Structures are given as structure tokens and as C-alpha cells.
């Protein structure tokens, strides 16, 4: 899935563009992925990209991830702030399933109202952030939603600068290649980010995803989802686009 959203610079006629790309596949020989990913427009401008990994795999995990992502999307669309979205979504899942199932939830928000990018994590998988010539790995320890009665997300807020790129994923990619003794390393991902531009977010997502699948001998041992977001300031196009391919 690829989403392009236009953001106007204050005091300028040329727009920035938010580029969002999602690549996902299911565990090998399992027909349905337990991961869900969606993009929703924010009521005061901008977009939020959400990624959820439901506990387990297959149909049961998909039901969980769909519940979580749908709840979170509705809250974002209502104007709820990201930290409150994560807390309320946890409370919803905890009450619905009596604390017996969990899910990871990551949200990347390009907020036009605050001119910032907000990163909300309830996942052990990191978010890699490229700004300038540096890549920061956000990997603070945090609990998934659903299990514990009181859970809050880890929130980071950064300025919305041109050529910012964010990359995150579920544990199928985090642990890709581990059972074969060639796990995908953060150093490799960092190098790929440093070589990419925000206009190439779709290509970057495809390259990282293909590398992870390759490390799994083309037979993923877990559901895999990758989410990338970039702020592109070098294009005068004013048209937003959404492109989706879905395997049947």
C-alpha cells in the first residue's frame, strides 16, 4: 500500500508531501496475516499510519489486529490525541478480551496542526528515524496493549522537517533470518536509510521487505509488516494518491 498526502508549508506556495508505504505478508503456509496496517487522515490536517500485530498468527490474530486498528482509526478520526488513542485502544482490548490477549500498536502521525511527527509505540519493535545525516533508533522498553490493566505508550515528537524518514515493522521482520544464523541487523537498516531519500520511501520499503523475506529463505516464519513514512519537500505536485495491491 502506498499513500501520498499533500501538506502545505506555512508562508509558501510549494507543498511538502507525506509519503507512506506499507508492505506485508503472512507467515509461510498460513493464508491470513495476523498483522493489520491502515492510514487515516487527521481532522485538523495530516495523516496517521497505524500498524498492529495481533497475538499469534492466522485468523484469530487477524481478528485481534482488526479490532485494535479499527478502534484506533476511529479515535484518530474523532480528533483524539495519539497518546490517548493508544491508552483507550488498550482499555478497549483489555475489557473486550478480559486481559487474555495482547497486540502491539505503533502509530506514526504527520500532524499538520502542530507541524510535528508524533511516534507512539506499544511494541518491542523499534522505530528508525532519519533526519539529516543521522539515524536514531527508538527502542525504549514498553508493554504491548491488552494484557496488563494499566498500559501507556512511549511517545516521541519530532519536528516535521524535509527529508525525514521513519521506518518500523513487526517482529517477523525484526527477527528475519535469525533461525538461519543471518538475522537482519540494525546496522544494515541504518545504512539503507542513510542512502534513501524521502521521495524513495516506496522503494526503500520494498527493498527492506524483500531483504527480510530473503533472509527467511522466502518462507517467513512469522507474519511480516513494514511501515515507512517520509517527508518529501522537493515536489510541487498538489495531488494526493493512494495505491493498493492486494494478493488474491
UniProtKB/TrEMBL annotation:
Residues 17-231 form the PPM-type phosphatase domain. It comes from the Bacteria. Pfam families: SpoIIE. PANTHER family: PHOSPHOSERINE PHOSPHATASE RSBX. This is Protein serine/threonine phosphatase. The lineage of its organism: Bacteria, Bacillati, Bacillota, Dethiobacteria, Dethiobacterales.
Amino acid at each position: 500500500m502506498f499513500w501520498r498526502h499533500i501538506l502545505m508549508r506555512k508562508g509558501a506556495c510549494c507543498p511538502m508531501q507525506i509519503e507512506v508505504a506499507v508492505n506485508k505478508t503472512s507467515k509461510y503456509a498460513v493464508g491470513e496475516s495476523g498483522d493489520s496496517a491502515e492510514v487515516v487522515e487527521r481532522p485538523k490536517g495530516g495523516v496517521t499510519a497505524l500498524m498492529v500485530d495481533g497475538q499469534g498468527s492466522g485468523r484469530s490474530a487477524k481478528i485481534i489486529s482488526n479490532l485494535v486498528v479499527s478502534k484506533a482509526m476511529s479515535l484518530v478520526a474523532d480528533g483524539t490525541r495519539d497518546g490517548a488513542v493508544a491508552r483507550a485502544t488498550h482499555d478497549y482490548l483489555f475489557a473486550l478480551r478480559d486481559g487474555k490477549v495482547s497486540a502491539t500498536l505503533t502509530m506514526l502521525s504527520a500532524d499538520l496542526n502542530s507541524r510535528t511527527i508524533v511516534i507512539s509505540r506499544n511494541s518491542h519493535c523499534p522505530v528508525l528515524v532519519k533526519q539529516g545525516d543521522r539515524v536514531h533508533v527508538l527502542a525504549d522498553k514498553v508493554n504491548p496493549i491488552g494484557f496488563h490493566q494499566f498500559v501507556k505508550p512511549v511517545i516521541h515528537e519530532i519536528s516535521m522537517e524535509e527529508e525525514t524518514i521513519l521506518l518500523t515493522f513487526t517482529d517477523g521482520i525484526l527477527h528475519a533470518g535469525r533461525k538461519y544464523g543471518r538475522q537482519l541487523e540494525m546496522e544494515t537498516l541504518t545504512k539503507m536509510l542513510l542512502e534513501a531519500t524521502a521521495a524513495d520511501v516506496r522503494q526503500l520499503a520494498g527493498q527492506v521487505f524483500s531483504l527480510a523475506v530473503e533472509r527467511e529463505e522466502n518462507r517467513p516464519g512469522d507474519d511480516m509488516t513494514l511501515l515507512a513514512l517520509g517527508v518529501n519537500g522537493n515536489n510541487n505536485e498538489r495531488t494526493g494518491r493512494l495505491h493498493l495491491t492486494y494478493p488474491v
